[in-house]
Design brief:
With about 120 residues, the chain is mainly alpha-helical. It contains 5 helices and no strands.
């Protein structure tokens, strides 16, 4: 093969590689610029989120027997009394309130993102 032909092939390969790299970088930049698609607002997704919240709540209550005992003691009481007792307990224990709010946050985020009413 002549050196002229090799030079043309090398130049063509370099240009092709440059175009390929350029297109790859542009598509990567475009993909990075697109916001992530939020998970769907389906019953299955809600169940998945809420099962995670329930799992973390269970772990928290197991690790904090005093908190577990308080919530267990509410069993069988009228709902209007339970709400008041929970508010009083959490106001007296702000660290516990923050922990439980953090655990429940994925459920609140799901509800807000999907236009569902917040839970009390």
């Amino acid at each position: 093969m002549s050196s002229s032909r090799l030079t043309h092939r090398a130049a063509g390969a370099a240009i092709g590689a440059g175009v390929f790299i350029g297109l790859t970088l542009m598509s990567a930049a475009a993909a990075a610029a697109d916001p992530p698609v939020p998970p769907p607002c389906t019953a299955a997704e809600m169940a998945r989120v809420m099962s995670g919240v329930s799992f973390e709540t269970s772990n928290y209550l197991t690790a904090h027997p005093d908190v577990n005992d308080f919530f267990t003691s509410l069993k069988g009481q009228p709902k209007d009394q339970i709400g008041k007792q929970v508010r009083t307990y959490l106001e007296a224990n702000p660290a516990i309130q923050q922990d439980l709010e953090r655990i429940r946050q994925p459920g609140a985020d799901f509800r807000q993102r999907c236009g569902l009413p917040a839970t009390p």
